[in-house]
Amino acid sequence: MYPSEIVLPMKAELTDHGFEELLNAGDVESSLSKKGTTLVMVNSVCGCSAGSARPGVLMAVTAGAKKPDHLTTTFAGFDLDAVKTVREHLLPFPPSSPAIALFKDGQLVHMIERHQIEGRPAKVIAGNLIAAFEEYC
Question: Is the C or the N end of the chain the one with fewer CB within 10 Å?
C-alpha cells in the first residue's frame, strides 16, 4: 500500500473538482447502483496517470456540453477493497491502473485501459471521453 503522503495530493486533484471517493466495496456498489451515468477513474501514482489520465478526465468533465451524472474515483494500491470491487465490475477487462470507465445505469458502456493512456497526451484522453459522454450521457 502506498503512503498517504504520496496518495492524498493525487486524490485531491480529482476530489477538489467534485469527484466522490470510492473508499470501500459498499461505496462502489452504492455508486454503481445509481441511475444515470457514472464515471469511475481508477487513479494511480504512475506518470501516465499524472501526465495524461487525471488531466484528461478533468478536461473532459469541464469542456464538453454533456458530462456524467456522477463523478467518482478510487486509488489503486491504496483503496484496496474499493479497487477490487470496481475491477469486478470492469470484467472482462483485465486489472488496469490508471483506468477510466463509464457506466450507464450500472452497466459498463465505455472503458479506457492503461495501454490506451500511456504515451498519449491529456487532450487525446479528453477527446475519447467527450465522445463517450456525447454518446451515453
Answer: N
